Fold these 4 entries.
Entry 1:
Amino acid sequence: MKSDTPEELNTDPADQEISRLIDEVMSSSPTDDKYRQKMQRRKEVQDQRIAKAISEKGLIIVNTGHGKGKTTAALGMVLRSLGHGHKVAIVQFIKGAWEPAEKRAFSHWENQLEFHAMGEGFTWETQDRDRDLDKAAAAWEKSLEFIQNPDFKLVLLDEINIALKLGYLQVEEVLAGLAQKPLDKHVILTGRGAPPALIEKADLVTEMTLVKHPFRDQGVKAQAGIEY
């Protein structure tokens, strides 16, 4: 049986028209006039969508999946928020045994950024479930402080999805906490295995797909500047 592609599953009429216009341009060699006509129509469709969009909303953002880049993508949003002068908080749930290079890099924004690495490393390193549970509970308590604090525009909960997957936290508890955030606050939750209830609640969900990985495929260890 043929599986549906993301384009086929998309039922938004505007997206479908934009996809059709792109396909028509890519599958032929239109004259300059035809190309301009199609791109003008694409601009009209996009402008109409933007005109209907609401101006601002605090988002719940989930980066999940087995592929690399979940935290890296979230840190890009952190950097963007800092550039706009916003206050940002980062709470790391699993990482923490290492001194992250990101923490040193972001030290330039010490007046805007709160950074708390509250884990003790990967679960196979700690080998102490009770201690891991205590650390996750403490990290969630700290996270709630930032979620509820209106002074912080963006809160990154790094690897919290792992804590949920391992049962260190309950998804109902996290959803209840997210419901307490101010309307204009953004919260990013990273880590593989995001639970369905969190995905359903989120406004933006990105799944990183693993295609190739140097450690799995070539036995290359984690490298400074790439993994940490």
Note: The longest helix spans residues 32-52.
Entry 2:
Amino acid sequence: MAEKRDYYEVLGVDKNADDAALKSAYRKLAKKYHPDVNPGDKDAEAKFKEATEAYGVLSDPDKRRQYDQFGHAAFENGGAGAGGFGGFDFSGSDFSDIFSDLFGGMFGGGASRRSANSPMRGANLRARVNITFEEAVFGCEKELDIAFKDECTTCHGTGAKPGTSPVTCTRCKGEGQIMYTQQSVFGMVRNVQTCPECGGTGKVIKDKCPDCRGTGYKSSRKKIQVSVPAGIDNGQSIRIRDKGEPGVNGGPRGDLLVEVNVGRHPIFQRQDMNIFSTAPLTYAQAALGGELRINTVDGDVMYTVKPGTQTDTQIRLRGKGVPSLRNKNVRGDHYVTLVVQVPTGLNEEAKEALRRFDEACGNRPADKSAKNTDAGDGKSEKKKKSFMDKLKGTFED
């Protein structure tokens, strides 16, 4: 299988490109390679899909952040963005205004050219789960309480009152779409719009089911188990297949996308797969070295500090970081910054010990007697008195 190209390269934009630049780049590629403009051209179709996939990711802030951090790996093997068109979910991206501007509404604001009675996949649901820092590192199981739609047992999903059936829409004659032609840059093109009368179903319910009120479904609260994978980061999402909105005309259900909110930790900070923290070091430990107890996500570990360690020295604990989403057996590292603590509130015995230590290091304190040299110097005192006597004599004369 050919290796995927970088999405920024596909669109021909810089990695710092804003939304307007992304949209403009995709607009040009869509106009050039769209299948309706290049009928039967497989190469153009492949390039259009590639550009659509790239824009679908980069135009979504969450997906773009995941892609910038993990690359294509963020959406592989059922990752946070896997699923949907070309292996991606573009439910958060809006292509309709681009297509409408380019082709004069020939795509009906994004509506697909399909039979009104063809199966259609249901919409995705979104939810959020809160977890701790440790749960994000090692993974966990969570339970969500969500509103889940099931087929109405009274009308069996038809939406019509028992004993009645939906009738064919008279406006679109059961097609679900209204078509007309319009002049565009490509000449006369066919425009397709969803029928406003039947909403694209091709059927109209005159007598609605009293239990579901014509929707064909009833909502109820259900418990959903969520398996949070080890190594997940704040803001990433977990996809649970077939737990979204029901499909139409027998189509499959959508998916449930669960966004993960990771709580802050009082000690640890995370960057990608690495963990960072600080550890206090006493003056004696820094000078003499010795064993130091350090907190990690795996529990306390003992580390041997070298003699003469300076404050802000950073050490690395290999394999004590966050597991990779792709392989939980591969972990990052834990970086610890050692901070030497200056003692406060010393008693006299401790102060004297520090003075002796300072002297032993060659840093002798100033001689106390030197402070009073002038006071004990007879010559200085004599000079001061002689000066005062002379001054006094001057005023007396």
Note: The two ends are 116 Å apart (CA to CA).
Entry 3:
Amino acid sequence: MKLEIEILQREYENVLSGYAALLTFRFVNLCVKAEPAALLPAAIMVKGEEKKLEEVAQVGVKSDDQMDVYPFHEDLIMPIGKAVMEIHPEFKQSLETIHVETQNKDMKFLRLTMPEVNGDRRDVLNTGVEAFFNEAKTQSDQSKAKYLQRLAKEIYELPKDEMDEARSQFDMVYDNHVRMIGHLVDEKKQEIEEAYQRYLQKKQEAESLQQEQADAEGREVTTQMRMEY
């Protein structure tokens, strides 16, 4: 294969990889689980200067649906909370305190809790997944057309079998990319569905407990009435 064709193919692969990386980042920001990467866009204003989160705090994952933000100074809590609110208003924020044994003092930090995936949120998340996928697919299709045009200028003097091989290589790159982003979609939808099922199970357990308590109170009232008579 001509060197120019190999270089063009690598460039094409890098472009498609960029689309896949952007799609992955967007899916992370359709928050179901607690993922620190979702906080990367946060811009914290400190004395009029914009800072990245990693410059002013550390982030730790507490559980599947919670992560904690430990500021380097307590005065940074409010700016951090404001910055998080701007990019993820759906997060529940709470101010927590932890005792640091080595320093023998209490330290305040920000706890972020992901919203439950109820029916409405499930629909919103799945709509977002489809929208981001369609955009990535459209970009990929447009890039394919563009690079096939560039490829045609490089192979027009080659023998037919070499022309067919070059086109086949570019088609394979595209097909592999589409399969990969399709897999990303399937994974994200599965994540959303699992979170929705956990929400339904939790709701059912709460309703069952409430019913059991109501039944117990009803039996107690009936017993008391019988005793009175």
Note: The CA atoms of residues 105 and 185 lie 46 Å apart.
Entry 4:
Amino acid sequence: MSASAINVQSDVRNIALNFPIPEDVFALTVQEVYHYTDNLFKFRLNRPESFRFRSGEFVMIGLPNAEKPIYRAYSIASPYWDEQLEFFSIKVPGGALTEHLQKIKIGDTVLMRKKSTGTLVLDALIPGKRLYLFSTGTGVAPFASLIRDPETYEKFSQVVLIQTTRECNELIYAKDLVASLQHDPLVGEYVKQLKFYPMTTREPSEYTGRITAVMESGAFFERTGLPKINPTEDRVMICGSMAMLKDCARLCETFGLVEGANNAPATYVLERAFVG
């Protein structure tokens, strides 16, 4: 399936609000839906004036299709200053939420709990020179927010975004986003500080392999000219599957990095909300 924007107005299939909206939930309207592949899509919602979040945080998303809606954690892919809220999602066959979420159209209603949270925020890291963003698949979403936040570049002189997917077309979302930053009025001047390293594990591409493998072998550092990761200069954020988190956390610790949190900033952080 080729990438295609869905710009038609919602039809009679639009989800009716037959159930009361809880006080701690926003009922938001779908502004845009874009399907990249058979398995990946993004959607944008209107943003309530009262909603505030830090770039890199996540919220709980659901649909008004049951008295007790099913909610799942979704990283906010848009930056804190955006007038809309963007999300990047996988389509899970038979998934309790995504089976229905993937069918939303412009004008439909999506539920979002009012509180945002997460560990992939700048405040959870101590100052450093370089910020590495390790991601697989839709794990790039919180980093889509951070690379559009001027504060990220003010705190780090170099930002290295690494995304690993199985196939090349799964990289389109991040590639398009990185390309668009050159014309971004807020972060365009910082683009020279950002390096994007897109990798695939199944389909041949410019960069192939897994994050841990190319770093342990030294191939990544040879190709980029970057020095080996060290706890004095480098900070790392990690978002992906449970196996990826474990492998990348172990990698960070072999480099001498220490896991941090909002209440105890250190040299690397990871997000566990999507795997537990």
Note: The radius of gyration is 19 Å.
